Description:
Blueprint: H1 7-16, E1 46-56, E2 59-64, E3 67-73, E4 76-77, H2 92-103, E5 107-111, E6 125-132, E7 138-140, H3 141-147, E8 152-153, H4 164-176, H5 181-184
Parallel strand pairs: 3-6
Antiparallel strand pairs: 1-2, 1-5, 2-3, 4-8, 5-6, 6-7
Amino acid sequence: MRSKPTLAACIFVLAVVPGVAGCGGSAPSAILAPTADSGLRPKGQTVTGTVERVVDGDTVHVRVEGQDVTVRMIGINTPETVKPDAPIECFGPESSDFAKATLTGQPVTLEFDDSQGMTDKYGRTLAYVWQDLPDGGLRLFNLDAVSGGYAYERQYGATPYAWRGEFAAAQRAAQAQDSGLWGAC
């Protein structure tokens, strides 16, 4: 019987030996509201966990192998709601509420992107957040947030991230329909 690798082992393997597979695992079981599978699949290495707390629309705490991991979602930015000494921005509460309603307590798969590194300048783990669906399918939360106008596409640094084309197209569609923040702000 093969055991699931720990988050620390996955991070080590991903940082030291790029391209090595095996940091995935089976998703925890949970009952979620029915939703359609997007048909997309992770392109990079993955680990599974459960969202314990949503900080705001683009940052969550995920329990992975018993560890509390602060995750900053790759490819998106949301209006501020908790930044010290900063006002709450237009559509920030709605963006945070969307993430809380969608992700809190839910099983997720975190996808890493070699082009973005493992952590940001604040020490947060960088990942795409995939919702694990009851039928075994997956939905890319980051993309759903952009599609619904709860987030906007954002590339940090010079290197494009893996899902940039899809996120940019979703943002153009959300803008054209005045979805979410595009119609409110």
